[in-house]
Amino acid sequence: MTRMVCVWLPNWPVQRLRHERPELRDRPVVLFSNTGNRGPCVAAVGRALLPVANHETGKSAHPTTVDGLTIGMPLAEAEALLAGGAVTAHIERHDPAADIAGLRELARTCDTFSPLFGIEEAESPECVLLDVTGCEHLFANRSPVAPRQESRKISDVQPLTDHGRTNSSWPLSRSASLSRSDRATLGEHKLVDAITDDFQQRGFQVRVAFAPTIGAAWALTHHRSPTLDGSVDEMLAPLPVTALRLPPKIIETLHELGLRRIGQLQALPRETLPSRFGEGLLQRLDQAFGDAPELLIPERPLEPVATVWVTDEPLTDRESLKFVSSQLLDELLGRLKPRREGVRQLFCQIKGTAARPVEFVVNLVSPCDVARHLLELLSLQIDRADLPEGISFMRLEATSIASLATRQRDLFGFETDGDTHHEVSSLLDRLSNRLGATAVVRAVPVPDAQPELAVTHEPCVAEGRELRGEGRDKKFFPLPLSPQPSAQCRPLRLFAPPQRIEATAAGPEGAPMRFRWDHRDHRVIRSWGPERIETGWWREQSICRDYFRVETQTGQHFWLFRCFDQAAWFLHGAFD
Amino acid sequence: MAAREIIAELSQRIRAIERTGHRSAPQADVTLNGLPGLERLLGDAGWPRGCLVEWLADGRGAGSTSLALWASRAAWRDNLLVMIDSHREWHAPALRHGGFAVDLNKTVFIRPEQPLDALWSLEQALRTRGIGAVVCDVEKLSSQACRRLQLAAETGGGLGILLRPALARRQPSFAEYRFLVQPLPPPNKSDVAVSRRWRVELLRARKQFAQRSIVVELSNDSDGLCVAAELASATPAA
C-alpha cells in the first residue's frame, strides 16, 4: 500500500522571502503582481511574525487575511491600509518562478526521508510531496528529538502545527493510523514527527500529513477532519469540497448547489458528475480515494558535474595540458548534453609537485555547450597561470550550470540573429577571462552632481553567480537609466583623478588665463563658466568647485576647475 | 614583354593583394556617415563595411574623438559599440549627451591594463561579427599589427576607429582612410555659446577623391549641439 506524505508550507511566497531574508520576519510583507489590466494587485500577504507565546493565545493561524488586506486588492489600497501600522511593511514584486525554484530546492533536501520526492503540480505550488512507501519502519527506532520548545526557539517562528496539541503531527492522520499494525504505525508517527521537526528547525511553518494517496494527503494538510478514526473514505467524507484541489469555478458551482462536503459528492450518481461539473471533478475525486492514479514527478538530486584526470607520468608543457583539458571538457559536456544544459562557470584545479594547487575560475556570459569555446577560455587562463612543474592532476568542475533554453536572446536589447549573438557573447567571455571581469564593463549613469561619481561600471560577466537563481538573467535586460538632471555639457574624456595644474586666473573668482599641462603652456582665448559644483557636508569629502570650459590658442577645449578647499586649479577633462 | 605591360600587370597584382578582403565583401554594404560634408571627401557617402579609419589630432581636447563618433554614427547606432578605454578616461554621461546620444545599453567599455592587451582586445573585437564600431586610442602601431587589425575588421565587418596622435601621420598604415583634424579659430568671438571649427583633412585613402579637406563647424543651439559643414571654405583638391 502506497504511503504519501504531503508537507504544506502555507503562504509559501512569503515564507520563502522570509527564509531568504530573515530580517523581514518582524515586518508585514506584501507581494504584488501585475495581473490583468487593473495595475499592481496584492498577490500574497504575510503579517509580522509575533513571538510564540503571544501567538498561542491567538485563534487564526492563516496569515492571508491580516490587517484587512485581501488577495487581489489593488496595491495602492493595501499601502493606504498599511500606512497606519507601527512597523513599515515590506512591499515587493511577486516572483512566481523563484517560488517554484525555491520549493524544488527544498524538496531536494528531503532525501533523508524518502528516495522519491517532488512538488505538487499546481500553478503556484505550496506543497512538497514524499512517497514514503516502505520507508516507515526505518523510522520506528528513531530516538526522540529535542523538546519542541527548544526547536521553536531556534527557528523563532510559530509552528502552524501547534494548535493546542502536544505533538506536532496532524492529529487526524495519527489517530487514523493507530488502528494499523503497531510497528508501521509507530514508524509513520515518527516519520511525520521527523519531517515536521526538520522543516521547523529550518524556520519553516508546515503542516504534515500522510495518507494512501497524494490527494488525500493534500486534503488532510489543508483541512482538519472531525473524524479521527477510520478509513480514507471516512476521513475525507466530512471535509469541504475545497480539499479536492478543484478550480475555483467548479467550487463556486458546487457551493451554489449546496454541495459543501466531499461526502455529499460521493452520494451523487458518479456518471452524472462529468456532465454537470466537467471531467476535472471526477478525476480529483478518484485521485483522492485512490481509484485513479496520480504520479509524483520526482525531483532528482543535483550531483556535481566534475571530471578528473590523474597520471603517474607528470606533464611538463602547456600544450599537453591543453590536450588533457580538451578531453576533460568533452567528458564534462557529454554528461551535460542529455540534460540540455550548458556551463556558466567552470572551476579548474591543477596540481603538480608543488604543494599548492593552481586554481582558477572561468566565467561565461551565457551557458555554453561548445567545447571549442570553453577550451579557448581555459587556454587563456592556462597561458597566464603560473603552472607548477610536473603536473599530475587536473580537475574540472562545472560549478554553475544553466539550461541552454534559458539563454537570453537579446543581449543588448536589440535583434540579433543567433550566430551574431553567440559571437558577441563569446567575445565578452574571452575578454573577461583574459583581462578580468572588472575590465569588461558597462557604464551605468548615476544621478550625482560630482562628475567623477556620475557613473558606475558593472561587469558584463558577473563572477560567482548563483547556481540556479532564476533572477540572474535580469542583468542583461536593459539597465534602468536614470535621467540626468539636465543635458549638461560634460567632457568626453574625464581624467581620474583630476590633475593639478599651475594656472593664472583673472581675479580670485575669475576664469583662468593661462595654465601649464602636459609639458606645454596653454593660453586661454575663450572660456565659458563658471559652473559651480558643490556637494553637501553629509558627504565624507564634500567638494566645492568652479568649473570652466576653456579654449586654448591651439583650439583645444579643456575642463578646468578651481578647488576652493585647496585654493588650486585642476584639469578634469578634455572635450575631445 | 614591354615594360609598360609588366608594370601594369604588377600594379594589378598589388591591387589584388591589397584588396583581397574587399572583393568578397558585398559592395552595397556601405554605412552612411553622420558628418555633413564628409561625403565630399569620401565620394560614395559612406564607409565600406569592415575597414579601419584613423583620426589624427594633436593632443587631447582637439575634438577628433567627437568628429570620429559623429562621422561613424550610422555604424554604431543599431549595433554594439565597443570602446577600449586603456586610460580609463571615457566619460559615459558625456556620450549620452553632447549630440552623440550613445545608448549605453549597447556600449561595452573594455579597460585593459597593458598596451598589448588593448591591441589584443581591439583585434578580438574587430574580428567579431555583430559589432558596429570599435573605438580605441592607438599611439604606436607597427605596420604588421595594423595589417592584422585590417584583416580582423574585414572578417568582422565592423568599423575600426583608431584615435591617434598627429605624429602618426608619418607612419605607414593599412587603414582605409586617414583623417587629420586641425582646430581652426572660431568664426565669431561670441562668448555665450560654445562653437568650434575644424579642418578635416583626408591624408590617405585607397581611392582618389576630388576634395582633400572640409571645414566642419559645431554650434551650440538652444536645443543641443549640431554639426554643419561650411560649404564656402571647402578647399579644392591639391
Task: Write up this protein.
- The complex is a heterodimer of chains A (576) and B (238).
- With 576 residues, chain A is α+β, with helices and mostly antiparallel strands.
- Among the domains of chain A are: 4-8 and 98-222, Alpha-Beta Plaits; 303-488, Dna Ligase, domain 1 (2-Layer Sandwich), CATH 3.30.1490; 493-574, no CATH class.
- Helix content of chain A is 29%, strand content 26%.
- Chain A has helices at 12-20, 52-57, 75-82, 96-108, 148-155, 171-177, 182-201, 214-222, 232-236, 248-256, 262-267, 273-277, 279-289, 318-336, 371-384, 418-435, and strands at 4-8, 29-33, 41-46, 90-93, 116-119, 127-131, 207-211, 305-315, 341-351, 358-368, 391-403, 440-445, 455-459, 493-505, 512-517, 520-534, 544-552, 557-563, 568-574.
- In chain A, the strands form 5 sheets. In chain A, strands 14-15-16-17-18-19 form a 6-stranded antiparallel beta barrel.
- In chain A, helix 8 crosses helix 13.
- Chain A starts with a strand and ends with a strand.
- Residues 50-65, 145-180, 406-410 and 463-487 of chain A have low confidence and may be disordered.
- In chain B, helix 7 (115-127) runs parallel beside helix 8 (143-156).
- In chain B, 29% of the residues lie in helices and 29% in strands.
- Chain B has one domain (30-229): 3-Layer(aba) Sandwich (Rossmann fold).
- Chain B has 8 helices and 11 strands.
- Chain B has a 9-stranded mixed β-sheet with strand order 5-4-6-7-3-8-9-10-11, with helices on both faces. Chain B has a two-stranded antiparallel sheet with strand order 1-2.
- The longest helix of chain B is centred in the N-terminal third of the chain and has 16 residues, at 3-18.
- Chain B is of the alpha/beta class and 238 residues long.
- Chain B has helices at residues 3-18, 20-24, 39-42, 64-71, 73-77, 92-96, 115-127, 143-156, and strands spanning 30-32, 46-48, 51-57, 80-84, 107-110, 131-137, 159-165, 177-184, 195-205, 213-221, 224-229.
- In chain B, helix 8 (143-156) links the parallel strand 6 and strand 7.
- The chains are: A alpha+beta (576), B alpha/beta (238).
- Chains A and B meet through helix 16, strand 12, strand 14, strand 16 and strand 17 of A and helix 4, helix 6, strand 5, helix 7 and strand 8 of B.
